[in-house]
Amino acid sequence: MPTNDIKNWDNKTVGSVELPDEIYAYPYKEHLVHEAVRNYLASLRQGTHKTKVRSEVSGSGKKPFRQKGTGRARQGGARPPIHRHGGTVFGPQPRDYSYKMNTKEKKAALKSALSRRVKEGKLVIVNDMAVDEAKTKSFALKMAGIGVDGKALLIDTLENTNAVLASRNNPKLNFVDALHVNVYDVVNSRYIVLSQAALDRLTEALSNER
């Protein structure tokens, strides 16, 4: 069972915690992680692209000239696709790009991603993520002080308003609630920084079989 130090904002070790093997020492399953990332990105797509077919574009449906006797190719109106400003054939239509991935697979993928960060030594636990002021610069200094020098996923409660606001303007920091951690955010971050309370909530959520 892996153990991890618990730090405070002064980068002093104030305790340690044992991490359950079934979550934080889970075998890395690349195919599940890949599928979970694809699933997440697909769900973000709006799918609002749209072209107009011949029945939707402006223009008359009246025949421009008689069917026979003119020597020209027959025409049925101004809106067919062969005409300028006519309708589009087989153009994109609104659609939903999201697809289902069952909960068991999502949890397994998240455990895989978290376990990889634990193995790399990139999981940082702080006893309390609360800060006195919502200052982006001072919060960045606190992150640097505990050894976080790259993109980081911060996990705590959204009720920690000062930390949420202090991290919001920093492109290297992504703050999420412990119950809304997803595989993409973990994979897209070099470090995982979470409070002791958030660790307990996240562990409980991933321990639940359902």
Main attributes of the structure:
single chain, about 210 residues, alpha/beta, six-stranded mixed beta sheet, about 35% helix, about 15% strand, elongated
Can you characterise this structure?
- With about 210 residues, the chain is of the alpha/beta class.
- The protein is about 35% helix and about 15% strand.
- Helix 2 packs across helix 3 and helix 4 crosses helix 5.
- The longest helix has 18 residues.
Poorly predicted runs:
none
Spatial order of strands in the largest sheet = 2-1-3-6-4-5
H/I helix tally:
7
Instruction: Report the end-to-end length measured between terminal Cα atoms.
Output: 23 Å
What kind of sheet is the major sheet?
6 strands, mixed
Q: What order do the SSEs take from the amino end to the carboxyl end, as H and E?
A: EEHHHEHEHEHEH
What structural class do you assign from the helix and strand content? alpha/beta
Computed Rg: 27 Å
Approximate helicity band: 25-40%
Which overall shape is indicated by the principal axes computed on the Cα atoms? elongated
Per DSSP E runs of 2 or more residues, the count of β-strands stands at 6
Mean pLDDT: 93
